[in-house]
Amino acid sequence: MEAWIRKIERELLPGLDFKSEKPYDPVVVHKLPAPWQLVGAGNYAIVVSHPDMPGLVVKVYAPGRDGWEDEVEVYRKLGEHPAYSRCHYAKKPYLILKRMNGRTLYDCIRSGIRIPERVILDIEEACDYARRLGLVPQDLHAKNVMMEDGRGKVLDVSDFLGDTPDTMWEDMKKAYYRLYLPLLSKRPIPMPDTLLNGVRKSYRWLRRNSS
């Protein structure tokens, strides 16, 4: 692990250029040093991997964005659970995490890959587990939850220290059981990014205005 910490701090961080330009849109990566590869981009951070570091990823918070301390604390509380990653090392502004393979539910819907009910039940159980530890699962949308080998996983736990219950996962479950399961699950079809992004932005607009 010490060798990878040196590689991150001497090669990745000095050569990385990215910004969180809008709070509700993914961060924009301007430069990522080779051979590091972008795994995913959230609103406040990016996740990258190295071809010689299988099984691990590095999550780096964007300059000026908070949340690193909270995420470290959440992983400390979660401990070991099959639906969550694990933090192996943390030093601001990055965390070294266990890599979770598979596809986000967003990618499944976009690619027309069937999402079995078992995935939804796994994520719900993972939320219950977090609540029993005093955490509050939040920001669980289609890009933050995953299907891996037919089982549900939670990718982003950075907001789990909040004190206000979030309806996002409940809304997603309703959409799954009322729309996806009866209409699309038997014969899922690919959905274009333009349609999915339109749904995402419309949903966020409705959430902001309803609150």
Description of the structure:
The chain is built from 6 helices and 10 strands. With 211 residues, the chain is an alpha+beta fold. The protein has 2 domains: 2-98, 2-Layer Sandwich (Phosphorylase Kinase, domain 1), CATH 3.30.200; 103-199, Transferase(Phosphotransferase) domain 1 (Transferase(Phosphotransferase), domain 1, Orthogonal Bundle). The chain has a 5-stranded antiparallel β-sheet with strand order 3-4-5-7-6, covered by helices on one side. The radius of gyration is 17 Å and the shape is globular.
List keywords for this structure.
211 residues; alpha+beta; Phosphorylase Kinase, domain 1; Transferase(Phosphotransferase), domain 1; 5-stranded antiparallel beta sheet; 3-stranded antiparallel beta sheet; 6 helices; 39% helix; 20% strand; globular; Serine/threonine protein kinase; transferase; Meiotic_Drive_Suppr_Kinase
**Ends: how far apart?**
45 Å
Instruction: Sum up the overall morphology in one term.
Output: globular
| Number of DSSP-assigned strands | 10
Output the number of helix runs: 6
The structure class reads alpha+beta
Q: Overall pLDDT, averaged?
A: 91
Quick recap of the structure?
This protein is α+β, with helices and mostly antiparallel strands. It has six helices and ten strands, in the order αβββββαβββααββαα.
